[in-house]
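Supplementary notes for students who missed Thursday's class. We covered one full example, reproduced here. Read the sequence, then the structure, then the short commentary at the end.
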Amino acid sequence: MSGRGSIIKALEGDPGAPLWARGALAVLAPAGWLYGDIMRLRRTLYETGLGVAAAPSTPVISVGNLTLGGTGKTPAVAWVISRLIEAGITPAAISRGYSGAEGGVCVVSDGAGAVLSSPPASDEAVMLARMFPRSPVVTGRDRPAAARRAAELGAGAIVADDGFQHLALPRCFDLVVLRGDRPFGNGRVFPAGAMREPLGALRRADAILLTGLGGLAVHERLRSLSPDTKIFEGMLTPSALLDLGGGPAGEPADLGGAAVVAVSGIGNPGGFARSLAALGARVLESLVFSDHAAYGGEELERIAAAIEKTGADFAVTTEKDAVKLGALAGDERFRVLRAEMKVNGGDELARLIFEAAGLGPEAGEGQG
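Structure (token representation):
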């Protein structure tokens, strides 16, 4: 296991992490305490109204998380957008735009025309723009400015991707997404752990979505931390097989028995490999790149070499990675696995969101 992989395992609280990695993070515990205190002070200042932008006229729904790494946050964003569309509302997505263009507000898609590529736009923003071509997608470090631009583009509701810690942007609903198996990583605040802020921040959440199997102990811990917050469970479910251009390329079941190379640069690459195995694919090699990785010549050569060396039927990647693999468009050896969030009690969660957004209870009715 690489040094980076060992540290990630330790951050996530994986008991299989090497002792040296867990020890290294333990040494950083005082820095984590200091960072947690800074985040508490920051939250207190925002609660007094300092630095908070004027509330936009368009309702803002935040989907965020409490930890670093993959929790299923972006599929949860897509789930909220889908529910808004089903209700006849034009949603827009806004995000900071990691790995995308620096500087001001960037319109990745105006909902009526071409979509920027990644790069310069961020991978998650481009993925959402391709999934929902009639919905504006805007990025920018200044999230209130991005929200104003989204409203100008005709949004009836705005979904803020990764907005939980962005306190300058007023919102009507905070949905926090946590991994069901390890919701708090190793339980420490960055840099000693995976948590972005102390556990008390959960009291700001209007609802919690656990992705994967949570278990009774996790539910009890969450209720003790935030007794009045509704808890839901969701599962990422493979829903389509695409080519690198986003066109249909079969069904997920077609991977059953196929020999594949897994290619991923996401927060939870192990989850992607397990999804492939659950479909019956034989994962001959798993190529793991850093989250938000840019795929340049070296990375493309590594992928091609793995396909040749293993004799795999396909290289399979995630939808988030696919938007950055345009150089390989037309390569018939590639498949893209789309996964959608299925929420237990989805109608109830949608009702809470729509009521908080002032969109009417009837708008939340539909499929979970």
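Commentary. The chain has eleven helices and twelve strands. The first strand starts at residue 60 and ends at 65. If anything here is unclear, bring it to office hours.
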